[in-house]
Amino acid sequence: MAEMRGGKPVSASQKPTGGDKAFGAGGKKQFFRRRKVCRFCVDKIDDINYKDVRLLAAFISERGKIVPRRISGVCAPHQRRLSDSIKQARNIALLPFAGSPTAPLAPTPGYPATGRDYTLREPREPREPREPREPREPRADAGAPPVNREPAAAPAPPKE
């Protein structure tokens, strides 16, 4: 039978992961997930400065996206100030818009990871000229009347 919590069935996505702690008496296990606390509230930081790049970079993912509250644990007021500061720092080029400058680039599929720069190539040798093609046979609809491509004339005004 499906697991129940508070009278409601628990889906597989809501079941706790291995990092959760199990405790409780009897046959039932209760899981406890540690609540994340706001780093700014704990340190009593009221002003999140856009010039503090080290602090802001901790809240940016490897791809350059702002880390959401549910992952970072920052409270709503500080998350709003944090995102404004990150956007301000991006606009004056203190932070990258996409990707971290320190993040290693993933190898491009299809190319060996040798470190060779494939954008700079040796110039190719010129090709030999091709022989002219033979004329094609006329198409089946070659004898059809030509299509009128001119716009139609405007309709005459109604007589009164």
Structure overview:
The chain is of the alpha+beta class and 160 residues long. It has a domain at 39-91: Irregular (30s Ribosomal Protein S18). Helices cover 18% and strands 6% of the residues. It is built from four helices and four strands. The strands form two sheets. It has a two-stranded antiparallel sheet. A two-stranded antiparallel sheet has the order 3-4. A hairpin with a 6-residue loop joins strand 3 (21-23) and strand 4 (30-32). The chain is elongated. The termini are far apart.
Structural class: alpha+beta
Largest sheet: 2 strands, antiparallel
N→C terminal distance: 84 Å
- What overall geometry do the principal axes of the alpha carbons give? elongated
The CATH C-level name of the domain at 39-91 is Few Secondary Structures
CATH topology of the domain at 39-91: 30s Ribosomal Protein S18
Query: Could you tell me the radius of gyration in angstroms?
Result: 33 Å
Characteristics:
30s Ribosomal Protein S18, two-stranded antiparallel sheet, 160 residues, 4 helices, 6% strand
Outline:
By secondary structure, this protein is an alpha+beta fold. It has four helices and four strands.
Question: Could you give the topology of this structure?
Answer:
Elements: E1 4-5, E2 8-9, E3 21-23, E4 30-32, H1 39-42, H2 53-57, H3 69-72, H4 76-91
Antiparallel strand pairs: 1-2, 3-4
